[in-house]
Amino acid sequence: LHGSLYEYFQNSALDSRSLLQPAPLPNQLRQNQFGATLGGPIKKDKTFFFMNYEGKRRAESPTYPPDLVTNILAIDQAKAQLGLAPEGCTAGLTTCSPTPITQGQAFGFLQGVLKTANNDFGFARLDHQINTNNRVALRYLIEDGRALGELIGNTLDGGGIGAPSGGRDLFVRDQSLSGTLTSVLTPNLVNSFLGQWAQRHYNFIGMTGQPDFSILNDLELGHNFGIDDQKYESRMEVSDSISWVKGNHLAKFGFDGNYIWDVDNFPGFTPVRSLVPGIACLDAFSEYYKYGATWLATAPPSGLLSTAQTQCPVNSDNGIVFMYAGVPLPTSATACAAPPWCAPTGAPLNTSTWANAFQPSLFSGYSRQINHGYWGGFAQDQWRVTPKLTFNFGLRWDYESGLAAFVKPDYTAWQPRIGLAYSPDSKTVIRAGAGLFSDRQNMSFFFIPNTQKVVAGYLCDNNAPAAITAICSGAGIKPQVMPMVASGNLQATQGYQIFGFPASQGASAMVANIIATGAYSSLTTGGVLPMAGTCFTTGACGRG
User: Fold this and answer.
1) What is the dihedral of CA 523, 526, 530, 535, to 10 degrees?
2) Which of 120-124, 356-360, 540-544 has the lowest mean pLDDT?
3) Please, are residues 449 and 480 in contact by the beta-carbon 8 Å criterion?
């Protein structure tokens, strides 16, 4: 038996301070990376094993953007007026700190944040020689990851850098079991067979459910809208290839197939996303939230009013230029058809803690499952024309199954390749090659549009009532089939309705109501939510 033990260690006492974290910014770092290996024969010249374990424990201070550090007191004061906990504290406002918050308290919360990464990796392999012509190998891999505070200090969707309230906690488990069988059929013919099962459980949960404020091209506060909460995948793979040596030729033929069970959860614009053109406009909205529509005249000048008055360019819009929100669609194809409304979601959120961006009972409403497969075959030849010249040429064909509801199936992915290697002397090799390559579909373009969508003509072809059908027909609007988006009634079984309003349609009032109540009651008409993109308002005859 043979084995090894190892350990790697570093911390902020041994490392120099980062140029991006000058004093007095926090500069904590500690990391331990350790592991062990063990391997040897089980049966001499017949069966062997090898195992490895490695663990990593890392914690470090985030790299904060200067605007967050410089303006942290103003940001936390504005959040306090909105009933939101300060940056760096994930509990409720009253639990985190008394109001008014001080500069020392605000900076102290930032200093207390650590991004952690605790990972465990395992690997095991067994090799066995069945007989002279047949060998089998089994391999198992597993990774468990727990990373808290991800995305803090990263550039996020929306263009801003993530603050602690927009952090995510990652819990992931990846594992795979694979086996290969290599058989020498004849002295010049070898077959290789592979089978694999793999699984991924990926959960990326928001550290808070606070409303998302996009300080445009600067900061992202709160539950970020552009992140998947969950990705689960199971995969089965089978492949086989044959290598054949004949004279100056080495030919290879084979196929491979993958079938994948895919689930994605994308809650999008929950609980609400607001576009705010500057930190001073966040101050303006917080004053509006606390003092009402006359805040410019009634808010005390000793508070955030002076900054908002002099530095926010959209005070007449109460600091917010646009808002988004979204609710799950019902699963019935006719639920929203007559009249074109969708019911509001669940019970109100807990606005004292903002622990969730949406009710956990609605989780499945934001999920989408797409099962699909990758299938391919190939043939290639390596021809040694002379001792100095070798040609390589081949042909591959690929096909993706399970996506016909979204895109037109492509059976024409033939991909020829050719290459050569020429060695005019013992010190020089000249290589050249060319080929066609077909990429696989990016599944994000199937999952994301299927949960946030406005599809022209959708309602026209979704069991629409006579009144809607007449409008569609009269306007000459026909159902649209859009790339990457399911057509017809398929859309009714997944996704959510996204809606947005500019400042001119009362965006700030809607955001204020959602923050105050934790619900979408201000957006309802007769207790239900109107669908976006109806024929009456946009001519789109769709829902989004």
Assistant:
1) -130
2) 540-544
3) no
Q: In terms of Cα–Cα distance, which of 402, 392, 494, 472 is closest to 434?
A: 392
By the 10 Å C-beta count (0-12 exposed, 13-18 middle, 19+ buried), 246 is classed as exposed
What are the strands, taking DSSP E only, across 304-388? 322-328, 341-342, 367-386
**Phi first, then psi: what are they for 500, rounded to 5°?**
-145, 150
What's the whole-number average pLDDT of the chain?
85
CB 83 within 8 A of CB 96: no
Q: What is the SS3 string spanning 44-79?
A: CCCEEEEEEEEEEEEEECCCCCHHHHHCHHHHHHHH
Name the DSSP class of 223: S
* pTM for this model (two decimals): 0.83
Both tokens of 226, joined, read 């552009």
DSSP state of 495: -
* Token code pair at residue 300: 């005390």
> Are the CB atoms for 400 and 422 separated by under 8 Å?
no
Rounded Cα distance, 512 and 521, in Å: 11
User: What's the farthest any 2 CA atoms get from each other in the chain?
Assistant: 93
416 bridge partner residues: 395
Pairing of strands 161-162, 168-186: unpaired
Task: Determine the average pLDDT of the residues in 510-524.
Answer: 82
- Beta-strand ranges (E) seen in 402-504 are 413-425, 428-435, 496-502
DSSP calls for 108-153: HHHHT--EEEEEEEEEEEEEEEEETTEEEEEEEEEEEEEEEEETTT
**Dihedrals phi, psi of 282, to nearest 5 degrees:** -65, -40
User: Strand 212-215 to strand 273-276: parallel, antiparallel, or no bridges (unpaired)?
Assistant: parallel
Q: What is the dihedral of CA 476, 482, 487, 491, to 10 degrees?
A: -110
Measure the CA–CA gap between 48 and 413, rounded to whole angstroms. Answer: 42
Single-letter residue type at 511:
V
Q: Is the dihedral of CA 334, 339, 342, 347 positive or negative?
A: negative
Q: CA-to-CA distance for 262 and 48, rounded, in angstroms?
A: 35
d(CA 227, CA 535): 31
Separation CA 331–CA 39 (nearest Å) = 53
The pLDDT tens digits for 463-482 are 555 666 676 677 666 555 54
Among 117, 19, 106, CA closest to 63: 19
Closest alpha carbon to 49 in 58, 57, 38, 59: 38
Helix axes 72-81, 103-111, angle to 10 degrees: 100
- DSSP three-state, residue 93: helix
d(CA 217, CA 71): 15
Q: Which amino acid is at 46?
A: K
